[in-house]
Structure formats: C-alpha cells, structure tokens
Amino acid sequence: MAEEATVAGLIAEAARTLADEPTLQQTLDRVVELAVSMVDGCESAGISLVTRRKIESPSVSDPLVARGDALQYELDEGPCLDAIREHALVESGDVAADPRWPRWAPRAAAELGVRSMLCVQLYTSANAHGALNMYATTRDAFGPDSHHLASTFAAVAAAAISAARTEEQLQSAVQTRTLIGQAQGIVMERYSLTAARAFAVMSRVSQDANIKMVDLAREIVDTRRIPSVGEARDD
What are the extents of the domains in the chain? Predict the structure, then answer.
C-alpha cells in the first residue's frame, strides 16, 4: 500500500511538472529527464516518435541513446521498434544474449555497452505513437517495480505530449491565419481588390508557383508585393 502511494505521488508530481512545460520540445525533454530520475535502473532515456511515417528521436538524454535509437532505425529492429509496433512493454535484462534482435543487440552491447533495455509504448494520438526508451549499462537493471512505474508514467507522458502537440498546432494555425490575413490586406490595398478577389489571386499564385499559401503570404508581407511565379520562393 505504501509503495502504491509512493508511485501515485511520483506520477502526480510528474503530471504537474509536465503540465507546466510551455512547448512540445520542452515537454519531450522533461519526459526524458523524469524517466531517468524516477525509474530505478534507468541510466539514459529517449523518446521515439512516429511522424509522417518516419520514426525519429526528438529528445534523448545523451549520445548513447541517440546512437542506440538510430541503430535500431537503421537496422529496422530493436526493443524501441517492438514497443512502437507490437507490445505495450518490451524488456531485456541481457541485451547481448537476446535473440530477438540478432543484428542490433550485439552491436548495442559491443559498441555502446548497453546491457538492459526497458521500452514502453506511447500513444500520443490515433495515428501517431512512439515509445519511451530506457537504457542501462548493467544486466537485469529493471525489475517489476520499474515496469509498473514506467508503464504508469508513460501513460501520463503520452497525454502530456498529445496536449503539447495540440497546443503547438493551434498556435501555428493562428499564426498562419494571421500571416495570410496580413498578406491579403496588403494585396487589397496595393491592387484595390476586394477581400475575396485578393484571396483568389493569392491562391492562384500559390498553385501556379507550387508553394504553400503561408510561404507566399510571408513573401508578400516581406516584400509588400505579389511575386511572379518565377520569383516566388518555397522556403
């Protein structure tokens, strides 16, 4: 009972801490930091996320994790990928002898000194998910208590990541609308057009130049004119 209370207290404090982070990247970095400090046996940690059908590690605690994760993506095998694709929790107490990853495991052990791994699946939305990856340089570093705490923390972390991502997308959408509105106003004033006509002109230039509307709007705001198709740049 006391142990459950301790876990609950740790998770509650982690949830409050993550809620205070102002950006998605800072949220990811804090998740990694908390994993190292909270989960017994965890020496290093990182987050794998699926974005636009690509898996990447946007936050890691140290170069060991960066290389360990990158090697998994390169070889298309490893505990992080298994957690993302198949299992809620993947654990190995002796990486060097683990037959599940015949290419990754020997290299992780020999090149990086990895001995134990604990990876927990993260669900950040219906279509985007990832894993919280915890590394150790000692065998059998993660016990049942670590499994329980890591799984509970991963659920809180996933919710925090999802909220931060949504907030970032909303802020980006507002900024985009504001920029397009500013460009539309410039076009209206400079060429004596109605709002609808100014937007139609911008849409046509965007399509003909094959650039995003927001990039076109940014150029209009910067130069105070509509660029020709040949001049329009896609930054």
Answer: 2-168, 170-223
